[in-house]
Amino acid sequence: MKYLRNFVLLKRIFSNQNLKDKLAKPETIEEYYANRPFLSAAEVDRNAAHFNIFRIGDPDIEDIQVPFGRKDYFKICIITGNNRIHYADKTFEVCEHGLLFANPQIPYNWEPLTPNQQGFSCIFNEAFFERFGRIKEYPVFKPGGFPVYELTTEELSTIKAIFEQILNEKNGQFEFKDDAIRTLVLQLIHSAIKMRPAINTVPEKVTAASRITSLFLELLERQFPLESASSEIQLRSASDFANQMAVHVNHLNKSVKEVTAKTTSEIIMQRLLQEAKIMLKHTSWPISDIAYALGFEGPTHFSTFIKRQLQLSPSQYRNT
Fold first, then answer.
1. Across all residues in the chain, what is the average pLDDT?
2. Cα 36 to Cα 22, 68, 218, distances in angstroms
3. Is 76 helix (H, G, I), strand (E, B) or coil?
4. Before 203, cis peptide (omega within 30)?
5. CA–CA separation, 308 and 302 (whole Å)
6. DSSP state letters, 219-278
7. Where is the HTH araC/xylS-type domain (predicted)?
8. What is the rounded distance in angstroms from the CA atom of residue 9 to the CA atom of residue 19?
């Protein structure tokens, strides 16, 4: 079994160099502009603060289809029109007015279903909010948050007005316009959260249990995305995480249960299932590669896991 596993790993590394997985390398801000020559932007330094906003539907600006995948920047979009949003392992259909919050951790794309889309799109990197709030801590940007909103006409008016203010500040000459833009972006986030408070996020109250749970969740998320078909997660069991965190596994399990009402193993398996669904649906990796990359002993164990969770085999899920 060990030699077979090593052979499979070598085959995955060397066999198909033309297989470029859409999840492997996030799109950078530089690539964002390179793929959209109709957008004007100053020289972009990925290590420097960057923010930009565009009006969707402007006749001088033609958007392009973006392949499903991760992006190396944050994005907030509001669009009027019928759209389908593929976000991680879920698909949302927006009938009229949609608001999307996207972060570098989660792969996504926005698929327009009707012509003449209207709205706004703003992109920014984490450096833009350095020492100005905790942008990554907001539920709309966390894996357990709620990133897609179907807006009512009244909500659309409120959110659209904020985007208009952001655009005016961006085009203005105010000395502190970046701070004004940051404030408006936070107002945008706060407005969305107040509309429909997020669920399934770790409480903000700081306790020993919440600190341990936050570290556990951070270590779990840090393993994704898998860079290539030859990658393999290193932390897969509660004991693996406990050893990495230098705590007793019983203490880890008790803390996680107290904060999330779920067991450590349940959270790990749910995250593995989410990543498995993403890779089955949006990559052409062989099922055996996905199985080994996610730490399963082999395709049979992986298939059993998927069937138990989805009542479908991996190939059936991929085909549907």
1. 83
2. 18, 17, 33
3. strand
4. no
5. 10
6. HHHHT-S--STT---S--SHHHHHHHHTS-HHHHHHHHHHHHSS-HHHHHHHHHHHHHHH
7. 210-320
8. 15
DSSP summary character for residue 285: -
pLDDT in tens, 146-189: 788 999 999 999 999 999 999 999 999 999 999 999 999 999 99
Query: What is the 8-class DSSP label of residue 28?
Result: P
Give the Cα separation of 170 and 177 in Å (integer): 7
Query: CA 165, CA 267: separation in Å to the nearest integer?
Result: 40
Q: What pTM was estimated for this model as a whole?
A: 0.68
Strand order of the β-sheet with 83-87 is 90-94, 83-87, 108-112
* Domains and their CATH numbers in the chain: 29-195 (2.60.120.280), 202-319 (1.10.10.60)
pLDDT digits (tens, 9 = 90+) for 15-65: 333 334 445 577 888 888 887 776 665 566 666 899 999 998 865 555 556
